[in-house]
Design brief:
single chain; 73 residues; alpha+beta; 2 helices; 5 strands
């Protein structure tokens, strides 16, 4: 498992809520929750990950700054 492929998802308050770890050898991810989603720890497919992101309105770190720019405009 490569640490480089891990990424974190954040909520609208820019609080880290989920670490996403790609599963080696399979098309899937392990989700490990933090903070308000601390109870989350499960394996999901790519489609389930996208649904999870949409349901909880989460963003990757690089997307956080884009939200601020659009709010200013």
């Amino acid at each position: 498992m490569s640490l480089l492929k891990r990424f974190k998802l954040y909520d609208q308050k820019k609080e880290w809520v989920v670490t996403v770890i790609p599963l080696s050898g399979r098309d899937g991810f392990r989700l490990i929750g933090e903070g308000i989603l601390k109870h989350i720890q499960k394996e999901v497919t790519r489609e389930e990950l996208q649904e999870f992101i949409n349901v909880h309105n989460l963003m990757r770190e690089e997307e956080l700054g884009q939200i601020d720019i659009f709010q200013i405009l």
